[in-house]
Amino acid sequence: MKDKATEPKPDVIAGRNPVSEAIRSRRPIDKILVARGEKSGAIVGILAKAKENDIPVKEADRTKLDFLSGHAAHQGIIALAAAKEYSTVEEIFDYAAEKGEPPFLVVLDEVEDPHNLGAIIRTAECTGVHGVIIPKRRSAGLSYTVGKASAGAVEFMRVARVTNIASLIDELKQRGVWVYGADMNGTDYTKCDMSGACAIVVGNEGKGISRLVREKCDVIVSLPMKGKINSLNASVAAGILMYHAFGTRA
User: Fold this and answer.
1) For the chain, N or C: smaller number of CB within 10 Å?
2) How many Cβ atoms sit within 10 Å of the Cβ of residue 192?
3) Mind listing the pLDDT tens digit for each residue in 38-61?
4) Domain spanning 89-249, CATH architecture
5) Strands 12-14 and 77-81
6) Residue 15 pLDDT > 80, yes or no?
7) 97 SS3 class
8) CATH 3.40.1280.10: which residues of the chain?
9) Highest-scoring range by mean pLDDT, 3-12, 34-43, 152-161, 229-238
10) Exposure string (b/e) for 25-53, b if CB count within 10 Å is 16 or more?
């Protein structure tokens, strides 16, 4: 009997034909993992299709592919499918307009832990956020783990992926959205009125928001700290800021 710990998760597509068919059918795919050094003709063709469809591709050791696929015959390639279809930024704005509310967005700058992403989506759904925006690369995607961590909220939250977060912020500002970046040495968040169109930017678990993204934000907001460590978990910080915005928008 196969050990349950080695069984593939529902979002793992293993093998050349299954991955190729998933791309052809336009199934939402977060990324493709290919065995390091694998350059056979069939895989080259699959990766070309992935590039045409703007699907991120990353090399990985075969041991990782073995583990993720539950030791199935992955043939050197697996795809990690999204738990649901991604939205577009335009669809998020349309949703806010339908509700007659100023846009309320959460932008994540390379949040890589799927549990953090799931928790953020869960809180976003509870606080009336219209959409969450993540980068296509160097970020957790809408995986099975994220869906589980969100406690089902992923089914109700619009999540969009963009190529470049800094460029996205420029677009948001052009559309009248005030952008608040969460980082150290900023304005006390309790002094910020987020009642209008706003986006809260939360950065990577270890590095925080990138320098360029920080420079693009209208305001840098910080959470007061009294303890001996100088940062909060990304999902906790995001949750505090979302509830603050929720309170000022009520």
Assistant:
1) N
2) 18
3) 878 889 999 999 999 988 899 999
4) 3-Layer(aba) Sandwich (3.40)
5) antiparallel
6) yes
7) helix
8) 89-249
9) 152-161
10) eeebbbbbbbbeebeeeebeebbeebeee
Residues of the chain with CATH 3.30.1330.30: 9-81
Q: Which residue has the tokens 């505090």?
A: 240
User: DSSP assignment, residue 122?
Assistant: H
- Longest pairwise C-alpha distance within the chain: 59
> Could you identify the residue written with the tokens 């928008």?
249
Tokens of 34: 């290919």
Nearest to 160 by CA among 210, 98, 247, 95: 95
Q: Give the residue among 171, 162, 114, 113 at the shortest CA–CA distance from 135.
A: 162
Q: State in Å, rounded, how far the first CA of the chain is from the last one.
A: 54
Residue 164 in tokens:
């470049």
Write the CATH number of the domain with boundaries 9-81.
Answer: 3.30.1330.30
